[in-house]
From TrEMBL:
The gene is gpsA. Catalyzes the reduction of the glycolytic intermediate dihydroxyacetone phosphate (DHAP) to sn-glycerol 3-phosphate (G3P), the key precursor for phospholipid synthesis. GO terms for molecular function: glycerol-3-phosphate dehydrogenase [NAD(P)+] activity; NAD binding. NAD(+) binds at G7, A8, G9, A10, W11, G12, F31, A132, R247. This is Glycerol-3-phosphate dehydrogenase [NAD(P)+]. Signal peptide: none annotated. The keyword Transmembrane does not apply. Residues 3-152 form the Glycerol-3-phosphate dehydrogenase NAD-dependent N-terminal domain. Belongs to the NAD-dependent glycerol-3-phosphate dehydrogenase family. Substrate binds at K100, R247, N248. Residues 172-312 form the Glycerol-3-phosphate dehydrogenase NAD-dependent C-terminal domain. Transmembrane segments: none annotated. One of its GO terms (cellular component) is cytosol.
């Protein structure tokens, strides 16, 4: 297998590390020249995954032309950069999209953006409960691999599976993408509850009611309920809503502690995708008539449109209704 991984943040580096573990020829494209140099010279990614010594067979490059001889490309950039990155990637090679988000301005899912940017390349989506630092350390992980082409999905799954890295195949691309995008926004909400000291009952309520929002929106966009209830939906929601290892949860925790969104988001190096997805998701939900009160609350906090106590109060005083 000659895999290319495009994007050397924490997740791209962890995936490249996993795929190269058996000595396989894996090439990792990095945006920052310093990251390319450090990986090739010191076998470490000092900016995004500093604690993990990288496999000797893993080579980094800053030149997209070095990806032209790969037989699959994993796209692992922040969602808002995916259009530009995919557009500059070599054509005709299967693309496995690993970014979680919805594009601002268009409201498109990552597969829809990739189809516009690179119409000649087959597309799959890889999404699920996967903290990068755990995957990079070889801890057991299961993930959804979604692709409309069942034969291609089986081929990719066989090539990326490792003893502790188990892809489960699905043909529900939209469902896998919606789970990954929406859970990031809901993780911000759970972080807010944690930061504000609202307790674990509140967290469980947010996860459950958030999942109801994810399901309503997903079904309206053509996702299947069993996908939303699987690894890429509920599985990732539970993971991301439960730990300060999540950048989205941590962002919410800061908001819940009373810090401003501007302070928390300015000059940050790592990506908290939920902050970008939240306003786009709110518009997308409104446009299909889906009620997403938790998502609306997160938007109000990110936009500093209302004080924290007022946002919490608005959720708690909604009319009582059947579950
Ligand atoms: N970290 C995880 O545990 C994890 C797990 C699953 C999925 N993801 C998803 O993977 C995607 C990438 O996240 P990450 O955690 O690897 O990123 P990260 O936060 O670790 O790193 C930021 C990334 O953004 C890139 N970047 C910054 N400016 C850029 C620009 N102008 N153009 C292109 N790239 C630029 C950096 O090179 C780096 O790769 C996100 O959509 C995230 O939701 C992350
Ligand atoms: O750190 P987060 O919040 O971006 O979450 C990372 C992964 O998406 C977890 O599956």
């Amino acid at each position: 297998m000659k895999a290319g991984v495009i994007g050397a943040g924490a997740w791209g580096t962890a995936l490249a590390q996993t795929l190269s573990a058996g000595g396989d020829d894996v090439r990792l494209w990095a945006f920052e020249p310093d990251v390319v140099d450090a990986i090739n010279r010191d076998r470490v990614n000092p900016l995004y995954l500093p604690e993990v010594p990288l496999n000797p067979s893993l080579r980094a490059s800053g030149d997209m032309a070095d990806m032209a001889d790969r037989d699959m490309l994993l796209i692992v950039c922040p969602a808002q950069h995916l259009r530009g990155i995919v557009g500059s990637a070599p054509a005709g090679i299967p693309l496995i999209l690993c970014s979680k988000g919805i594009e601002a301005g268009t409201g498109l899912l990552m597969s829809e953006v990739a189809e516009q940017a690179q119409s000649a390349s087959p597309i799959a989506v890889l999404s699920g409960p996967t903290f990068a630092h755990e995957v990079a350390r070889g801890l057991p992980t299961a993930i959804t691999l979604a692709c409309a082409d069942a034969e291609l999905a089986a081929r990719i799954a066989a090539r990326i599976a490792r003893p502790a890295f188990r892809p489960y195949i699905s043909d529900d691309v939209v469902g896998a993408e919606i789970g990954g995008a929406v859970k990031n926004v809901l993780a911000i909400a759970c972080g807010v509850a944690d930061g504000a000291g609202l307790g674990l009952n509140a967290r469980a309520a947010l996860i459950s009611r958030g999942f109801a929002e994810m399901t309503r929106f997903g079904l309206a966009r053509g996702a299947r309920a069993e996908t939303l209830g699987g690894l890429s939906g509920l599985g990732d929601l539970v993971l991301t809503c439960s730990s300060t290892n999540s950048r989205n949860f941590s962002l919410g925790k800061g908001l819940g502690e009373g810090r401003s969104a501007a302070e928390l988001l300015t000059n940050r190096r790592t990506v908290a995708e939920g902050a970008f997805t939240a306003p786009v998701l709110r518009e997308a939900a409104r446009s299909v008539g889906v009620d997403m009160p938790v998502v609306e609350a997160v938007c109000a906090l990110l936009e500093e449109a209302a004080p924290l106590v007022q946002v919490i109060d608005a959720l708690l005083t909604r009319p009582l209704r059947p579950e």
